[in-house]
Design goal:
295 residues, mainly alpha, DNA polymerase, domain 1, hpI Integrase, Chain A, three-stranded antiparallel β-sheet, 3 strands, globular
């Protein structure tokens, strides 16, 4: 646990998921008296994965479990508990690429405009959604955003992302205006010790939770009449897609999202291709004329 937290810089939730997956392997070994964690072979691991497949574990979950096991055996190798890594040739199952759900610009506007500003938490929720969409933040980055890391004059925020890595992200003037409006309400709160610099607070003066952000978005989507299945991550996906549609450079989007690899960001090019395809079908004169002649 110490290795994956410190050496790999994983968040607590991710580290615990790794340990939970590793326990699945431990339970498998416990039911096989002939093998131990240090003597496990490539064939043993193949048998373990076959068992996961037999009990209906999805390919995506299998891939996550394999990732955790590989990390564990790299640790054993580094610490010289073993001399060779049995996971070296282990391959993850192929996972079909699932394109994320996104909202149109009109849907984003409807979502934010549906917030009732007469409610005590109204302005906070409006500012929260504006920041999510303006900066393309992960929900963990949003709830951890510090007031001291919002630079109003420069129009940037400092974000602490995965692996505790910091990055500088531009923020829109609109989002900054909503934050300023929210600060009037925030200053009236009795802020609990340890949350003095946390930007978004609940009514008890403590930081809001991931679940709370999820519920806010679900409720506003319902009020706005948006039938798509959305989450806080939908705002991040929409941010990236709208930037790409507007002509932004993929490398710039990668930096703003905090993706280590450009291949992670490239999923948005698939969405953009679908957008372009629809635009051609709907607006190209040859397509319009053909559709009209077949009505």
């Amino acid at each position: 646990m110490t290795y994956i937290r410190l050496e790999k810089g994983l968040a607590d939730n991710t580290a615990e998921a790794y340990i939970d997956d590793l326990n699945k392997l431990m339970n498998y070994i416990g039911s096989n008296a002939d093998i131990s964690i240090l003597s496990l072979s490539y064939n043993d691991l193949q048998q373990f994965l076959a068992q996961l497949n037999d009990i209906g574990i999805s390919a995506r979950s299998q891939a996550r479990i394999i990732s955790g096991i590989k990390s564990f055996y790299r640790f054993l190798l580094i610490e010289e508990y073993i001399s060779s890594d049995p996971t070296e040739l282990l391959e993850s199952p192929k996972i079909g690429q699932k394109l994320p759900e996104i909202l149109s610009e009109n849907e984003i506007n409807s979502l934010i405009d549906s917030i009732d500003l007469s409610k005590p938490e109204g302005q906070r929720n409006r500012a929260l959604l504006e920041v999510l969409y303006s900066c393309g933040l992960r929900v963990s980055e949003l709830i951890g955003l510090q007031f001291s890391n919002v630079y109003f004059d420069e129009q940037f925020v400092i974000v602490r992302g995965k692996g505790n890595k910091q990055r500088l992200v531009p923020i829109s003037a609109k989002a900054l205006k909503e934050i300023n409006n929210y600060l009037i309400d925030r200053h009236r709160l009795k802020v609990q010790k340890g949350f003095e610099d946390t930007l978004f607070l609940n009514r008890r003066g403590r930081g809001i939770t991931r679940v709370m952000v999820f519920l806010i978005i679900k409720e506003q989507a319902k009020i706005a009449g948006i039938r798509k299945t959305i989450s806080p991550h939908t705002m991040r996906h929409s941010f990236a897609t709208h930037l790409l549609e507007g002509g932004a450079n993929l490398r710039a989007i990668q930096m703003m999202l905090g993706h280590e690899s450009i291949t992670t960001t490239e999923i948005y090019t698939h969405i953009d291709r679908e957008f372009l395809r629809k635009e051609i079908i709907d607006h190209h004169p040859r397509n319009r004329n053909y559709a009209a002649s077949n009505q």
